[in-house]
């Protein structure tokens, strides 16, 4: 017996992440994290940049407040202020080797906000801020992390 029908399947295809500079963000996401650049298009003074983690089906759109078409100058300025404080976006990623990724990001000069730790809710994780101040967490299920030890 199957469950109730909920309609068509829905998946996430794009996540919008506000950054203050596309090129600086690319140095972090492409060069340091190894994400693929899936689009980098300039059009009418705007730039559309997407990156994708290896093996993922979701695209992360790196956008600047200046590219928001319907935002007022005051809104763009407020967003830039929140971004500078690290209050705009938070993303959580899963990795197959949290400690190796931590070491790579640390050696690459990333701002580590918390060292790898086993969490009571079943993951080993650490925190980092991207160059725009976005808060990122990288986790690995504890069972997988323990098998690597």
Automatic annotation (TrEMBL):
<dbReference type="InterPro" id="IPR037523">
    <property type="entry name" value="VOC_core"/>
</dbReference>
<dbReference type="Pfam" id="PF00903">
    <property type="entry name" value="Glyoxalase"/>
</dbReference>
<feature type="domain" description="VOC">
    <location>
        <begin position="11"/>
        <end position="141"/>
    </location>
</feature>
<dbReference type="InterPro" id="IPR004360">
    <property type="entry name" value="Glyas_Fos-R_dOase_dom"/>
</dbReference>
<dbReference type="InterPro" id="IPR029068">
    <property type="entry name" value="Glyas_Bleomycin-R_OHBP_Dase"/>
</dbReference>
<protein>
    <submittedName>
        <fullName>Putative glyoxalase superfamily protein PhnB</fullName>
    </submittedName>
</protein>
């Amino acid at each position: 017996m199957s469950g109730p029908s909920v309609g068509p399947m829905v998946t996430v295809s794009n996540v919008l992440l506000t950054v203050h500079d596309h090129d600086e963000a690319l140095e972090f996401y492409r060069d340091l994290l190894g994400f693929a650049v899936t689009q980098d298009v300039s059009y009418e003074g705007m730039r559309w940049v997407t990156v994708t983690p290896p093996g993922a089906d979701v695209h992360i759109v790196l956008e600047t407040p200046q590219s928001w078409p319907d935002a007022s100058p005051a809104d763009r300025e407020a967003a830039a202020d929140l971004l500078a404080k690290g209050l705009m976006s938070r993303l959580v990623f899963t990795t197959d080797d949290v400690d190796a990724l931590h070491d790579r990001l640390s050696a690459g000069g990333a701002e580590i906000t918390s060292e790898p730790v086993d969490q009571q809710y079943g993951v080993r994780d650490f925190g980092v801020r991207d160059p725009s101040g976005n808060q990122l967490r990288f986790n690995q299920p504890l069972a997988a992390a323990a098998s690597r030890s």
